Amino acid sequence: MSSHQRSHLLSLAVAAAHIFWVAPAYAISDAEDVTADDADEIVVMGTRSERELDSEPYSIEVISRQQLERELPRTVPEALDTLPGVLVQKTASGHGSPYIRGFTGNRTLMVIDGIRYNNATYRDGANEYFAQIDNFTLSQIELIAGPSSALYGSEAVGGTISLATQSSGIFDHNDRFIDGQQILRVSTGDGSFVSRSALNVGKGGSWGLRGGVTVRDYGNVRAAGFGELLNTGYTERAFDARLDVALSPRWTATLAHQSLWQNDVPRTHSTIFSVPFAGTEVGTDLRRDKDHQRGLTYLKINGDTDLDWMRSLDVTFSYQSRTEEEDRIRGDELRIDESFTSDLFALNAVASAEFGSVELTYGFDLSHELIDSARTDTASDGTVTVRLQGPVGTDARYDQAGLFLRSITNVADGLTVEAGLRASFVDTSIGQFADPVTGGARSFSDNWSDLSGSVRALYRDQGHSLWAGYSRSFRAPNIADISRFGRSRSSEIEVASLDLTPERFDTFELAYSYDNEQVAFGLTAYTTELHDYIATVPTGNIREGLIEVAKRNAASGRISGVEAFFRADLGSGFAFNSNATWLRGRLTTPTVDGPLREPISRIQPITGNFTLTWERDDHWALAELTLTDRADELSSGDLLDVERIPPGGTPGYALLNIRGGTEIADGVALTLALNNVFDEAYRAHGSGNNEPGRHLIAGMNVQF
Asked: Which superkingdom is the protein from (predicted)?
């Protein structure tokens, strides 16, 4: 968003505040007034229905606003780090790509207030975009593990991350109000300083305006055994504003905006500044930095009616912008300046209905995305070459449409059956990209349609829950699949692929849990069959000294896993929480020597998380232990990724973090953490550099 656009938005917000200061206030409904009696009931919205957590036949993990403010994670992906089935890969300190049940990139989906965050430039591997959300704006994070294409369409294969942003407080007050928050975070692990300032003003039951600014300055990582890792720091700025207006006692309108900028985020692993770890190789680039800018603006209207066929309605129009610029100087001193921009317009509507024992959720999604890219090469002698495209094709369009229906039926006492169906349509065109054979300019257009569905049954009785489900999900080829050009893994360069079709996934899940409020435990087993899987395969050519690869619907395979958890209330304020993940994935790809069956890239090793917490009055403390086995299930691509993955796999590690906090005065809370107590030299599997060694994190949260 330009400075002119930001000024215009601010002017509108100020004008709206002036108008609504004298607007009538509507009574706060029972549904909006959260009392102490229902404060412990967790309501989730990531399944496109507002329902209690334990009534959903999905594997859902919830991170509350209180957890985010206590733990102060660097990024949204890092907030997911200890959840079952999740591996957070970080190519760089400013990046973060969660692998959910073995999938990442464009096979996982993120939504913000019900709006799709993914765009058509996402790669099939790890990418940085999920780290570009300001976690201080969030009221809740929901991880819906497993497929949800029946609800969201393409890409919701491994899991869906649903983010809910904080409201302005319109229904938390009965009169005019003004309050705010100041959060500070410092860390010795990277010499970082983070500041979050937020302010709320409004009139209870009538209108509310919330705005905030976040400043992040990250220095170089201080890694155990290696000291300061040069060229790993970066800066980040974020701004958000949200206006909520009560149109009537039953209808609310929300106008919201958020922007985030990242400056000079280094991809250190490919440069001469990288530090070898357990046998990894040092890169040859002299420089490789990225700038990112993203924005989201949306208008949402939602409310209730007396109609049986539409008890509630939520309509959202949104616009998202994304800009990425990379400045890279190769070892031969060739300077590559490449970039892309994405402008994504979307309209979605979700309605609910009740017919006896049947609850229905239905709606539609429409999106129209425009993508442009550019690349300029400057040789050491000053010769300038303008390429046909940047990292993806230019003058591109990617349109999606979908109709979905979800039904929940109470078949008998304790027995609920859920069914979902979605029809999806994708249409795309690319005005110009480099032909993979001739290198000349060419264009492309195609379209696909698909049906996704799911059937799940949940039985609950006296604390016992048993559910089983089958889901068919899919992913349509996107602009990056079709037209990507550039370096992928350490020794590979990718070219365009023109004959792709959607890939499909069949997932079977079975879960059991027991909860008597003192003790809770459970087990989830799942398997996903991969059909027409779009895999990166060598073309047999060498380009720019690298192995040339392209995408093909050439592979099939299976990912299976088991997730377990155990929780116990130990009394006297103590509680124990643990989970464990076992995952195995195999992919079969044809080669000139016959079918190649190998592990799926970057499969999560056996992982266990164990947390002991204590809380009393305004004081809390926890000890968190993560045990990760050696990641030695390597694909042929992993073996070639010599700058990130050590020979033989990424070493396992034991990571102990200790945190605590207290409220020293009314509205003033302090937190202190000692992370990586064992001073372990480690990195998450597939990451580009090591994490900090033993370090302190201090935080202060002031609410007024």
From this structure: Bacteria
Q: What are the DSSP calls for 281-326, one per residue?
A: PPP-BSEEEEEEEEEEEEEEEEEEEEETTEEEEEEEEEEEEEEEEE
| Res 10: pLDDT | 39
CB-count exposure of residue 583 (10 Å: 0-12, 13-18, 19+):
buried
Asked if 156 and 149 count as a contact pair (C-beta separation under 8 A), the reply is: yes
Rounded to an integer, what distance in angstroms lies between the CA atom of residue 88 and that of residue 82? 9
The Cα–Cα gap between 104 and 94 comes to 17
Helix (H) or strand (E) holding 79: helix 76-79
Q: Which helix (H) or strand (E) holds 366?
A: strand 358-378
For residue 373, give every residue at least 6 positions away whose Cβ sits within 8 Å of its Cβ, in sequence order, or none: 338, 339, 340, 341, 389, 390, 391, 392, 393, 394
| In contact, 241 and 210? CB cutoff 8 Å | yes
SS3 label, residue 519:
strand
Predicted pLDDT at 600: 95
pLDDT at 39: 38
Please give, one letter per residue, the 3-state secondary structure of 421-455.
Answer: EEEEEEEEEEEEEECCCCCCEEEEEEEEEEEEEEE
442-454 core/surface letters (b: 16 or more CB in 10 A; e: else) = bebebebebebbb
Q: Express each pLDDT in 228-241 by its tens digit.
A: 999 999 999 999 99
Task: Provide the pLDDT for residue 18.
Answer: 36
Q: Compute the average pLDDT of residues 194-220.
A: 97
What percent of the chain has a predicted confidence (pLDDT) above 90?
A: 84
Q: Which pLDDT belongs to residue 542?
A: 84
Res. 257: pLDDT tops 90: yes
Sign of the alpha-carbon dihedral angle for 69, 73, 76, 81: negative
Q: Which amino acid is at 182?
A: Q
Does 378 have pLDDT greater than 90? yes
End-to-end CA distance of the chain: 30
511/243 Cα distance (integer angstroms): 41
Amino acid (1-letter code) at residue 242: R
Cα–Cα distances in angstroms (integers) from residue 103 to residues 109, 182, 599, in the given order: 10, 36, 13
H-helix or E-strand containing 152?
helix 149-152
Residue 8: per-residue pLDDT:
37
Strand partners, 261: 237, 293
pLDDT value at 581 more than 90: yes
Q: Tell me the pairing of strands 287-307 and 310-329.
A: antiparallel
Torsion angle, CA of 533/535/541/544, rounded to 10 degrees?
A: 150
Up-side HSE of residue 394: CA atoms within 13 Å toward CB?
A: 15
Residue 643: left if φ>0, alpha if ψ -120 to 50, beta else—which one? Answer: alpha
Strand (E) or helix (H) holding 16: helix 3-20
User: Which residues, at least 6 apart from 254, have a Cβ–Cβ distance to it below 8 Å?
Assistant: 167, 242, 243, 244, 245, 298, 299, 300, 301, 302
2.60.120.480, 1.10.1740.10, 2.40.170.20, 3.30.990.10: which CATH number matches 3-436+454-703?
A: 2.40.170.20
- 556: which strand partners? 588
pLDDT at 31 over 80: no
Specify whether the CB–CB gap between 46 and 60 falls below 8 A: yes
Give the list of residues 6+ apart from residue 271 with CB closer than 8 angstroms, or none: 231, 283, 284, 285, 286, 287, 288
Is the separation of the CB atoms in 397 and 369 below 8 Å? yes
Residue count of the chain: 704
Task: Tell me which DSSP letter residue 480 carries.
Answer: H
- Is the per-residue pLDDT at 23 higher than 50? no
143 confidence band (pLDDT: 50, 70, 90)? very high
The average pLDDT across 200-223 equals 97
Provide the token pair at 501: 């079709």
Nearest to 703 by CA among 169, 38, 188: 169
Partners of 57 in the beta sheet?
none
Residue 685 has pLDDT above 50, yes or no: yes
